[in-house]
């Protein structure tokens, strides 16, 4: 398994993975910058977990394709 196989700019899943990584950056910025209420915290944690799962799945598909 080569990690260099993740870089496949001709595939849509690569670009979705890039967008999800940018979303992860934005979620990290939100958690560090703003004081969130209970609902906001739950929402950000939920989005972060879903983002991580989808990103992991896409990276796995790119490596194994």
Q: Could you give a short description of this structure?
A:
This protein has 65 residues and is mainly α. Helix content is 75%, strand content 0%.
Question: What does this protein look like?
Answer:
The protein is an all-alpha fold. The protein has helices at 12-33, 38-64. The protein has a domain at 37-65. Helices cover 75% and strands 0% of the residues. Helix 1 (12-33) packs antiparallel against helix 2 (38-64). It is elongated and about 40 Å long. The model has no long low-confidence stretch (mean pLDDT 91).
Key features of this structure:
65 residues, 2 helices
Helical content band? over 70%
| Helix-strand sequence | HH
Largest sheet: none
Cα-atom Rg, whole angstroms? 14 Å
Count of helical stretches: 2
Can you give the mean pLDDT?
91
Indicate the overall shape. Answer: elongated
Query: Would you count the extended β strands for me?
Result: 0
Give the class from helix and strand content and strand pairing: mainly alpha
Q: Assess the beta-strand content as a share of residues.
A: under 5%
**Uncertain residue segments:** none
Intertermini distance: 10 Å
Lay out the secondary structure.
Blueprint: H1 12-33, H2 38-64
């Amino acid at each position: 398994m080569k990690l260099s196989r993740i870089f496949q700019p001709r595939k849509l899943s690569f670009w979705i993975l890039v967008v999800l990584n940018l979303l992860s950056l934005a979620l990290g910025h939100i958690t560090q910058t703003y004081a969130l209420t209970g609902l906001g915290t739950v929402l950000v944690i939920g989005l972060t977990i879903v983002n991580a799962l989808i990103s992991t799945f896409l990276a796995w598909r790119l490596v194994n394709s």
